[in-house]
Amino acid sequence: MFDRRLVQNFDYLLLGVVVLIAAMGIVNLYSAGFNRTPAGATPVYVKQVYWLGVGLVLMFLIMLYDYRHLEKLAYPLYLLSVILLVAVMFGGKMVAGSRRWLPLGPISLQPSELVKIAIILVMATYFSRRPRTGPLRLKDLLAPMVLILLPVLLIVKQPDLGSGMLVGLVAFSMILFVGVRWRTILGCILALVLASPLIWGFLKDYQRQRLLTFLNPENDPLGAGYHVIQSMIAVGSGQFWGKGFLQGTQSQLQFLPEQHTDFVFSVFAEEWGFVGSAVLLLFFTGLTLWCLQVARDCKERFGHLLALGVTALIFWQVFINLCMVTGVMPVVGIPLPLFSYGGSSLVTTLLGVGFLLNIRMRRFLFGG
């Protein structure tokens, strides 16, 4: 029998903020692609509307399935995501020098997006089943490290450094929430520093160039530094009130590259200025804090960790993208969640929101 308390505990505020940010993103994509769509092609903002519809349907379907049963699916989904990453290496579609997509009829699947959901589920499952014996020691991290590094290395191999880094950050954020000894943290940092020469040698030439360009973009203003320089010009030229909708010179005159994906915030900042940017950041901050509240209110271990994982996924994408487009971090190809164009990314984020709504609806089962 249907429990009415599920409807009574539905989080309309969370859903409203998510839909509002996505709607703002669609309006911004209209501007980003204004007069740039080839004849007969579907504009990117229309495609984003379609993907938003697909994501919302999947989100509501996720809500109907008690999240506690997702533990049974965590490892099979993780295994499937790894298999798909391997399949990409052999049968993936090559786009702009990267092999990241699997063609599935009229659409393409990006397995690295599925990994983001799979790693959250598998980390939540692993640590919820582990006995609580105090802060984690180095030997306690061996199994999680294997689970994390396998998909991360496959993603970096595509090459997709940004997605690989994001998966690692989300997983390690969950580990920190579980609790780790300070000596273990310092040991991991030291190991990362010592391994940096090996990591540098593992990077592709263009990835190394991005890191060097970050230190001094003006060294190659028409090459590797072009993206960052044009982005910072766009953000700065918006000043306090912005230039107005469809009035951004950097975007409308096509100086700004990747303006519907990685640098979509630059379009928004130029047109809506500091005020509009502050409002958008306020919405993202409120969303992140409310996600943490969902985790805090959940009294059940798996749901608590699952909510923290989704929160980390949203937070790190927002943080890295905004730092990237303002020149604070190197360009690593991380989209702005719910805002940048991209079906796989949008659906992945909405699936995560579906987990949060699912947990929120069933918090009464555990006295939350």
Protein described:
The protein has 368 residues and is mainly α. It has one domain (5-35, 44-366). 67% of the residues lie in helices and 4% in strands. It contains 14 helices and three strands. The protein has helices spanning 5-8, 12-32, 44-64, 71-91, 111-129, 142-156, 161-178, 182-202, 205-215, 226-237, 249-252, 264-297, 301-325, 343-361; strands at residues 93-95, 98-104, 107-109. It has a three-stranded antiparallel sheet, covered by helices on one side. α2 (12-32) packs antiparallel against α12 (264-297), α4 (71-91) runs parallel beside α6 (142-156) and α10 crosses α12 (264-297). The longest helix is centred in the C-terminal third of the chain and has 34 residues, at 264-297. The two termini are 22 Å apart. The model has no long low-confidence stretch (mean pLDDT 86).
Largest sheet: 3 strands, antiparallel
Task: Give the helix tally.
Answer: 14
Structural class: mainly alpha
Form type: globular
Q: Give the beta-strand count.
A: 3
Proportion of strand residues: under 5%
Q: How do you describe this structure in short?
A:
With 368 residues, the chain is mainly α. 67% of the residues lie in helices and 4% in strands.
Question: Topology of this structure?
Answer:
Blueprint: H1 5-8, H2 12-32, H3 44-64, H4 71-91, E1 93-95, E2 98-104, E3 107-109, H5 111-129, H6 142-156, H7 161-178, H8 182-202, H9 205-215, H10 226-237, H11 249-252, H12 264-297, H13 301-325, H14 343-361
Antiparallel strand pairs: 1-2, 2-3
Helix pairs in contact: 2-3, 2-12, 3-14, 4-5, 4-6, 5-6, 5-7, 5-13, 5-14, 6-7, 7-13, 10-12, 12-13, 13-14
